[in-house]
Amino acid sequence: MKGGGLALFGVGLMGGIPAFMAEAAASNKVLAPYKRRRVMVCIFQRGAMDGLMAVTPFTDTYFQEARPTLSLQAVAAGRNNPLLDLDGRWGLHPGMKAFEPMFKDGRLAIVHGIGSPNNTRSHFDAQDYMESGTPFSKGTSSGWLNRAVGLLGHDAATPFTAVSLTSALPRSFYGDNPSLAISNLQDFAIQLKGNPAAANTAARSFEDLYDQTSAGLLQQTGKESFEAMKLLQQADVHNYRPAAGVVYPASPLGNSLRQIAQLIKMDVGLEVAFTESNGWDTHFNQGTDNGIFARNVADLSNSIAAFWQDLDAYQDDVTVMTMTEFGRTVHQNGTGGTDHGRASCNFILGNRVDGGKVHGDVPSLAIENLEDRRDLPVTTDFRSVFSAVADAHLQISNDKVLFPDWVGKKAAVMKV
Amino acid sequence: MKAAIKIIGVLLVAAGGYVLFSSFLAGGLPLRGTQLGPALRMPWKMAGLTERQAAAHLLSRFTYGAMPGQVDVVVQMGLENWFAQQLTAQNPDDSLEQVLNRYDALELSNQQVVETYPRNGQVIRWAIRDGVVDKDSVRVDRAAYRQVIQNYMQEKGYKREQELFRQFFCQKILRAACSQNQLREVMTDFWFNHFNVSISKNDCAEFIPAYERDVIRPNALGRFNELLLKTAKSPAMLYYLDNFNSSSPLDSMPGRKARGLNENYAREVMELHTLGVDGGYTQDDVTQAARVLTGWGVYPLGEVAKAPQAMMLQRFSDEQIARRGFVHEGDFFFNANRHDKGEKVVLGHVFPAGGGYEEGVDLLNMLAHHPSTAKFICHKLAVRFVSDEPAATLVDKMAKTFLEKNGDIRQVLITMVTAPEFWSADALREKTKSPFELAIGAVRSLHAEIDQPMQLYNWVSRMGERKYYYQAPTGFPDKGAYWINTGSLLNRMNFGLALAAGRIPGVHVDLLALNNGHEPESAQAALVIYGHLILPERNLDATVKRLTPMLNDGAIETITGDSTSDPMLAQVVGIIIGSPEYQRR
User: Fold this and answer.
1) Contact check, Cβ <8 Å, B559/A168
2) Residues B192 and B313 both lie in one domain
3) pLDDT 10s digits, B3-45
4) Which of A96, B128, B460, B534 suits A170 as a labelling partner, its CA being 20 to 30 A distant?
5) How many interchain CB pairs under 8 A, A with B?
6) Does B546 reach chain A within 8 Å, measured CB to CB?
7) Do residue B421 and residue B444 come from a single domain?
8) ipTM of the complex as predicted
9) More confident: B277 or B269
């Protein structure tokens, strides 16, 4: 938004234009009034992703026996696209070819055999436990990301410290520290469709009322709301263009990651971001290199790759981490799919990540090694990975608060 | 379902209510086993309030919001009479019931729900089993596949589960907005939240409509221990907190894998439903309580009823199975084979060996009558009706009544409303409306006609309260700090503007009618008139003062709204609804 536009916006505003904005207008660049900080981006894959199909142990004959029509090979065989060989043992699903260069570059790490110590196979309960960060307690009222916000080492400087690109506040964000759920940045404004002048009057009226006729929480939140709204308006969210050459998939995940990139580049003080990817509960007709699963992993990797590319100069500041509530059975079932299992795998992307490797402790899939004789055993507690990322990237080292009741060591998934 | 429902004028109720109450005084009205006791004397005068202010306060706390003119009606009726009437919850709701009758899913039993509204995954499985669909056909032609499933469902009389919930949500909106028994609706909401279950958990979702209808609402103004016991035996709660499955490790059914103890329900019933987290129980108490509650489950419904063991069970009558220590009551089934028959000790109370279903009932009654429970429940009630931090003296008084009157919820509410703390200045307007309260209050304030209740449900979700989907058993927190955050506050403002401008499809407002068809002569006049209509008995000087210059300055073009031809008026009313003053109750 250019200087002239800013001046127009400022007319009639109670209290005039915030000082930092006036300076920014003068210099024609958005100057961050807030210190530029690092951002941790979490993507929750809801429905339980089949980690064994995402990253396949292709040399394991037990696996091939367990999935006669539901596995891929590392070499082109028949009509199927082959897996992308990562390290001679593990193969990446061909739908995720966008991840291959990042893996080879050492920026993308995979943790296999990751999961929860609580063996519930209920989506609801497992998601609840993972988002609250307390796998054995249902009564925890806060989410782990909300607690992380409290451990950032400074008061939330902006309303955008923790933002979820979802329609409702996710469980991970429940708690006393401020956080925000926005389904769409463009809608974050006072709206009276077709009548911008009236909307403007309404906005000014509300802002004044909240400032002058209320106190405490309503007043404080009113201030933050209008601050947030103006920040977004000033950054002209309607006309955001990703970096040159970047094309996001036209999917909900692509859409949310694009908006997260937007927020990051707006320098509004974002530090913790969250979004979701749905549709991973593949009990029927999972497909191999084509079908539901393939489409999902393509969406996941293409969205994340576009996001990474879009970040451009901000890449150093960002680490992305995926998570899913549990994995799926080693065996395929009677309806072309897989059922609820235990461990899965996750992806961590960033310049500080110990990438180019598949971390974890996965045994051969002989039946005696499987949990309950059916599932990939959990050999890495998700908390050890989440805390490692939070520590290395956001300097959050207080694990007792971040993950109460957890006794363990951080996983060695980060370089520093 | 397109029939509109106008909110009935309260005068009808007032007349009827007066008659009801005087006949009660003459001893002619049965009150479902409880007497109201000595006359309610509300000490509002001592607190320095006028009668009108007191009436407004009662309405803002015990209803979903005053309708225009309702303060007058309550004053005329007498505050105590009005409250007593709300406590008995026997006002007729004829036109509401007429509208609700058009929703055919609302009266179904759990058995009927399971047979008519199967879950998505189930339909596909059945279609495969019946040979209607080939399991590999999904990848071939999605449109054809969907058509086949649709035909199959039509043939079998199955309906989509989403339709069940849609009707359920609509019913909730309509009852809250239109019922004459407002206090019962408010208490239904309170208890549902206290004994929270969630549609987000698939296993219990389909049983939730019946849960609210048969377990919560009828007992919302009754006795706490009865409510507790009924929730414990409902399929919704049994599935939500996994007690349906909890078994003695010494499962005596041959050939079956021992399932084991599940402590989830036992823990939450103590922590969240009765004693409270600081109520004085230990982990061991939780385990022992879980053992007491083993064997509690759901009587086979739907598909499960066709399994061989279930078929066998259905051959016996209830009396026959009772002789063997089993219990069948509605949807509840106590399976003696899964019950841990050893001795247990919970909170110092010994449950001797050999116990069955009855010891579970005894345990729940013990918890229901425990002093920690009295305190915990009364604190929650005080938070709901008085302020986010109620005075300890008030909570103590209420807890005393709770214990002395056997958990009689009505008596506790009477103690609360006759206490000076209820009327003190720091209790007035201290509560922040939840999104649901805001939306329902706004449609009541504006006498809106609701053709499409789902639109309101969606707005309430957008404002941060997706009803029936709160994941954790704790239920939605009852604190301003939970509801008011940057995103949700913005949505509240937008809600006000949209509602007043007639821009919520299916929710019609006629702003001029509220003022008897008279158009206010200026923006300031509109502010004053409508401010008093919508926020009765409040001091709106500050609001009027701040807004007037702005409304006079603003360049307002014509809005193409649908129920109001007066854009200025819509703007004013929208701003009042989104204003900080209106967020408080």
Assistant:
1) no
2) no
3) 444 444 444 444 444 444 444 333 333 333 334 545 579 999 9
4) A96
5) 169
6) yes
7) no
8) 0.81
9) B269
